[in-house]
Amino acid sequence: MYSKELLKGTLTAIILKLLAENEKMYGYEISLHVKELTGGKIHLKDGSLYPALQKMTADGLLSFKEEYIGKRIRKYYYLTKKGQKEKIAYLEELKDFMITLNKIVFPQIKTA
Hints:
By secondary structure, the protein is of the alpha+beta class.
């Protein structure tokens, strides 16, 4: 499992990418999906995931729809039009950052 410091700067990009691929997801579903996709190497804890979802909603990147599942209410998050546009910028910035970081930390690994 990676440290929360490493994940901190990538959480927005992870959420935007997953919601773009899956249309709508609830918080726990996002967490499970990330864990599954990474073979358990990334585990999004409630204390970081839900504040990120709230911030992204406040910033206009996400919206949500509440649905009753039995007697419980579940919040399904989805990308807004702004979120769809910002996703491209976030992912490009992250990709460029990773290439740049690689040049410093692992210069022997060549990137395209």
